Amino acid sequence: MDHNLKQVLIKEIDKAKKYKITLEHSFTKAQKIQTKSFDQYTIDELDILETLTSRFARSSDILIKKIFRIFESIDLEEKGTIRDLINQAEKKEIIDSADDFIKIRELRNLIAHEYQEDDLNTIFQDVLKFTPTLLRSIDKVISYASKY
Fold first, then answer.
1. What contacts 125, CB < 8 A, 6 or more positions away?
2. How many domains does the chain have?
3. Which domain holds residue 44?
4. Which pLDDT score, from 0 to 100, does residue 3 have?
């Protein structure tokens, strides 16, 4: 394996570990918030939920766009689409479900592009639903990376 690629992988795994800590922290805080209509959230609750969604998006990006790409290069696979990366990760048993990760990716895209209040409550609830999946996947990615 290319030494530079291994160094990049180590750097990205270190980032993923840090992201996991902050994502877990935000998730723990957000779980305490009761589901309600968007206009009923307090400013503090919105801060917590928006921080969680931001950390969720960054964590999913580092896994899919950075670490899965590095695995693809290390394993000498042809460069593929995001969907290809996710499917390969499932085949390698790095993630439990490609379908869940497709939903995580779609959710990340909504977070990055959606600003309507009506949709934010749905986004918050979906992030709360998929955060445990993302956290487990970070652990599996770290374990998989240790083989290199």
1. 35
2. 1
3. 3-145
4. 80
Please state the φ and ψ torsions of residue 14, each to the nearest 5 degrees: -60, -40
pLDDT of residue 38: 83
- Over the stretch 59-94, which tens digit does the pLDDT of each residue have? 999 999 999 999 999 998 999 999 999 999 999 999
Phi and psi at residue 63, in whole multiples of 5°?
-70, -55
Do residues 114 and 123 touch, judged by C-beta distance below 8 A?
yes
| Cα 131 from Cα 42, distance rounded (Å) | 22
Counting as low any pLDDT under 70, the low residues of the chain are 1, 114-118
Return the structure tokens found at 71. 């695995």
CATH number for the domain that contains residue 80:
1.20.120.330
Helix (H, G, I), strand (E, B) or coil at 19: helix
At 117, which amino acid appears?
E
DSSP state of 38: G
CA distance 76 to 136: 26
